[in-house]
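Mods, move this if it's the wrong board.
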Amino acid sequence: MLGMSNYTLFSSSLPEIETLGLLEAIKLVVARGFPSVIFESDCKFVVDAVNSSQVPHNEIGDIISRSQDLLSSHSQFSISFVRR
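Not the wrong board. Structure tokens:
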């Protein structure tokens, strides 16, 4: 288990912040060289969007696309939805 905390002041929607958090988590484990990781999120929108083949054409879509690229280049990484 690995955790990280960060504070950034900017105005965004909750789904965008959740998606950005996932992207940063993926970058963190890639940088640390973890071979196999299961990412869990209680934000169903993010999990469904990242696991989908259709990407929205907006700011969130860009973050989702970058997350998908990192996940696809690491076959032992996955993301799943968990209830709070």
